[in-house]
Fold:
Amino acid sequence: MQPPGGAVGVSVNITNNASFTDVVNISVNSATGWDVSWSYGDGNPMNGSNLSLESDEMKWIQFSIFVPHVEGGVPLAFSTHSFSVVGVSEHDSAQIVWTFTIEVLPWHGAEIVSQPTNGTVDPDEKIRIPVSVRNLGNIENSLEVRIRPVSENGDAIDGQSLASFFEENGWSAGIFEPYRVTNLAPYEYGTVQVEIDSPNLASGTMWIELSTWSRGDAQQVSMTRFHVSIERTWGASMSIVHDCDEMIPGATCTGSVTLQNSGNYESSFRLEMGDLTENIDCSLAETQFSIPRGQSVETEFSITLGEGLLADTTESVELKLINSENGSVYQTELVTTITEAIYGWEIISVEETISKDKKV
Structure:
């Protein structure tokens, strides 16, 4: 029995039982394709070499067989591979054959099939990153997959070791679906999921070291690193409801503005008015807002129209929704009002007196 990736030395003796000196052509034959070498002839036992033997003389023949490294799962564990030592007499072509087998021992190994993809995640959310690992051994086996947090440079973090789950600085990560890497055939692969849960922060990165090896006999450990970063997104919108479409001069109308944070993190916003003419005035109940992600708030406003405006005069108030942190303008809306016509009638009576001579 021989482990893969090693050489086995073989010694065979041959005796000339004839009553005369004979020359024997010795060769080693095999269908394995493995490397076989000796120090006779051209060094290739497959080509054979002549050996002179006197009557009753015994000589030893020594050669080496190299059992190849496991590639693609072969040579399989406990498989047997035949070799034959053949001697052919130069005198009468008589042939002698000695056949033996080499049984391959188990070898264990594992590899990460491809580099895991770095990921991004929303604050306080989870992401799963698939990682495929392969059984490089020559026997069915299960693979261990373990993770630990490390620094950006790959340095270990105090108190952290390889495990199936860890918590670090608000982050947590674990191995899911480990059953997919159990009882893998030689060179078969399976895929586990690494689930990472981010803290509720606007930014941050977690570096993870992942290692895999064959269960019970870690002759070869495969390791890689990848990272997951919190990606903050910004977004907001507003909608306006009001009763200001038509107003008479000097009147006041009211309305409401609903602001929604469509980003993935709590953000600060402000509501601003554009420049107003002397014919209109607007008052906002609130102008500064802190809105959790996915939430909305409502505030009120009032508009007062100036006196003395002609009918059908149009006036507008511009409202802007702005990110307080970076000044981005998300949305601009106009609240427009038209001056209503005011109709008034006055009847004026005139009294005239006419004299007899028809003079006023």
